[in-house]
Amino acid sequence: MSTEIKPSASRRQALKLGAASAASLLAAPALANTGEAVIEWKMVTSWQKNLPGPGTTAQTICDRIERMSGGRMRVRLFAAGELVPPLGVFDAVSAGTAQVAHTASFFWQGKMPAAVWFTAIPFGLLPLEHITWIEQGGGQALWDELYAPFGIKPVMAGNTGVQMGGWFRKEINTLDDLAGLKIRMPGLGGEVMRRLGATPVALPPGEIFPALQSGLIDATEFLGPWSDQAMGFQKVAKFYYAPGFHEPNGTGEALFNRTALEGLPEDLRTIVLEACKAENGRSLAESEWMNAGSLESLQKEEGVLLRFYPEDVLDALRRETAVVLGELAAKDELTARIHASYSKAQARLAPWSRVSVQRFLAARDGDKA
């Protein structure tokens, strides 16, 4: 599915709109080497500035757009809270306060329940499988349809890979250990945990560490070892759990104000979209490399204790996930179609992943199980 957007207004109208937006949001534009006015945009994010993983991804996209455009276009990054609150970026782009945001779709579950499918679903698609669904299985068209009423064009814009299961102050040995557990876990994973007796707490990334340190929450998930280590969770919680049943994929999204995007010259619009697409591969490779090193250092140098969810806990989580997904899919027709499309992709890809990846890893590692 192509990500190209065909202007809905005349080029003259769109360019006027884009110029007016830039004038109201930014100081007078600089001049490119060619003498033409530089197009300057604002990017707002849900992340602390240069947070390993999504924060660096956001900055890389900004830098790549400027380089690829030969300086004709610049995107200035505003980290969480610098221009709008971390969870206010969707509304900021919809209203035109900023032309683009970097964030994750599960934050918008309250606004549109189906948004969670475009970051991760518990026990769902792995990163490559998710990219395949978006690009080959009809996912992008459904994503566009979901966000269209808000005047927003979404695209994949980086991936932090398979997530970890979370940081806990105490070990999880049985289902009873989830009862009353206050855990920061957004998206559907949090709802599944609630069904098993836990209390999910919604917190933006910048508020997680103080909440865990103060005891406001007993546990938290975030991303993988690299980003988690940078957040400092290992200083206040030593039990680090896997697998990340709730987020087997870490797709970040770029949200574009459609009027601003459509107002760009065609070559710059292509550059912007391709910069995001290129970041999917770069960031996923970076996350895999850095996560491997950080997991080792967390255990060897910081005393973190790696643990795995007991099988009975995973079984219960899996059962509740099926119930939650079924209830969510029944909410409206578009959510039902998104769920059906995702499930169809998983049914198609899972057998191949078992043959190609799972069996190979078992053979490579000499796993006799």
From TrEMBL:
Gene3D superfamilies in alphabetical order: Bacterial extracellular solute-binding protein, family 7, Periplasmic binding protein-like II
Domain of life of the native organism: Bacteria
A family per Pfam: DctP
Keyword annotations: Signal
Signal peptide stretch: 1-32
CDD domains documented for this protein: PBP2_TRAP_ketoacid_lactate_like
Protein name from the UniProt record: TRAP transporter substrate-binding protein
Organism from which the protein derives: Pannonibacter anstelovis
Taxonomic lineage from the root: Bacteria, Pseudomonadati, Pseudomonadota, Alphaproteobacteria, Hyphomicrobiales
